[in-house]
Amino acid sequence: LGKIQSEVLGNQSGREGCRDKERERAKTMAMLEMNIFGIFMLLMLLLIFLIILFACKPWRYFSRFRSSRFSTFKVGDLQRPLVSDDGNLIQGQTSEATREYDLEGACYPNEGLLRSSLTEGRAYKQRLPSSSPHPTQGESFVLEVISEPSDNALVGQTLKHPAEKVSFEEEQTYDWQNKRSKNPQHDLEKDRLAELSPGLIKDQRSWLSLEVIAGPAIGLQYAVHSKSTSKLPVNLGRVSPADMVLKDSEVSGKHAQITWNSAKLKWELVDRGSLNGTLLNSRSVSHPDSGSRKWSNPAELANEDIITLGTTTKVYVRISSHNEFQTPFRIGVASDPMAARRGGRKLPMEDVVYYKWPLPGANKFGVFCVCDGHGGVGAAQSASKIIPEVLANILSDTLKKEKVLSRRDASDVLRDVLARTEARLDDHLYEGCTATVLLVWKDGEENLYAQCANLGDSACVINLDGRCIQMTEDHRVVSLTERKRIQEAGLSLRDGETRIFGINLARMLGDKFPKQQDSRFSAEPYISEPLRIDQSSKDVFAVLASDGLWDVVSPKKAVQLVLQMRGTENSAEKIANGLLNEARAMRTKDNTSIIYLDFDTSL
């Protein structure tokens, strides 16, 4: 019995020992599982932190905060754009109209529905390159070029024009002794261009100025000095490294060359064996053996000559004592599509800026334009091409140009330009854009004038004689001027109504369908009073910008920022970028494009 009892007790203690071991093992496994789970959670938290860090990219904004060194203003000092809080803020020198604000912002809710189809395949203009504001002697000064290459032309291929058209010179005669063509049409064209040229000197040792007046590269300009040997000769062709690259399928890659003959003190034109030939005042200067592709003998150039390359591209020649295309003031351009929120994707770029001095055929006129599109960039791109084209066409009329110069007022011209532009945007049913057009010109006494026309909420301000002069009017639905216009037209707006057809503008270009449906929309521009710009005065400049700037920086602050930057910086390009950085630091949520013009010649 005792033996049995001891065996039972032994078995019981063995079982208890096994249970203890099992408990210890389970406890160890539980602790191991907890450690593994803790490590896993730490790794997950670290992964989530890294994902958030790389998504937000906070390091991208370190330079932006540093860039705000140009400004000493606090966020609390932010003033809404175009609100006159100073007696020196003048609108067009005539009124004190204030700019109201759309509290819903500058993003249009209906754009998301239209953008996917309307903007497909479009190239957004992210940044505009800017020419040097001070071209050196002999340096080329090339402004906006719009070219449409032939769809049938292969890259690097010159299209041979039919022979019967290449031999055009056989039907024309030219009196070399009297430098007159017997082609009446050529004479009329040359006489018209001669009226637009300034007084040119007989001594031809100086500047050669070339301007494309017909063809796909119309508007392209180039100037070189006879003493700039590093820039000579001037090569004309379809591809680089030509000095004037002419995107015309009938122009050869190495088509023609212009050289300075120091012995004769004459500019000379040579055809470089081009396929379609070169004409000077309708007479061929190509080699007699047209199929040999040999260089021709040099032909002397004179002021007001017209060079024809192929059959479509015509280059107008001016020879004078100064660079015809040197801008009499400094220009800076900056643009950025911006993002809807910090660290987010860039917005589609719907701003388009354009500037040109001088206009083709209008020697002492220049245009500066900001177009801010909505519903897509198409209307803004079209308007930026049509406006300078129509303006140059109007000012090529001697009577109209003389009327502007004598009256020192271009109101009729600006109104006509925007009316014609609106008429040519009939295919933009659901796309529209603002248009702020600043026309600058010199009269016969070299006095500088500026006048502005606008539709929409892109704005222009000029600082002159210590005054911040507002050259534009706000055309948003919430502005007092627009509500007054609508009421005077016998129409009405509901209390609190800030948009019509989902658009916060009441005046703009394009948007043909909404305009057909609601008569409250208009395309009648605001025209400012003309300003005489005294370039001898200190701190004379203009700022044109889309609403991406004016939504977060008031005109008064923009002027103060420029004045502050001008104290340490003379580059117009850097000042324009300084304003852009300020808009970025202020967290603007719309495309921002800026043109800065510095009229001060003392710098």
Automatic annotation (TrEMBL):
Necessary cofactors: Mn(2+); Mg(2+)
Residue span(s) of domain FHA: 234-285
Annotated ranges, domain PPM-type phosphatase: 330-599
SMART domains: FHA, PP2Cc
Region (Disordered): 1-21, 170-191
GO MF term (any one): protein serine/threonine phosphatase activity
Record EC number: 3.1.3.16
Keywords associated with the record: Hydrolase, Magnesium, Manganese, Membrane, Metal-binding, Protein phosphatase, Transmembrane, Transmembrane helix
Pfam families in UniProt: FHA, PP2C
Regions that span the bilayer: 36-56
Protein name (record): protein-serine/threonine phosphatase
